[in-house]
Amino acid sequence: MTADLSALTHVEAAALMRGILRGEQSPEDIKQFLLTYNAREATPSELGGFLAAVREAATKVDLPSGVAARAIDIVGTGG
Question: Is residue 33 assigned to a domain?
Answer without folding.
Answer: yes
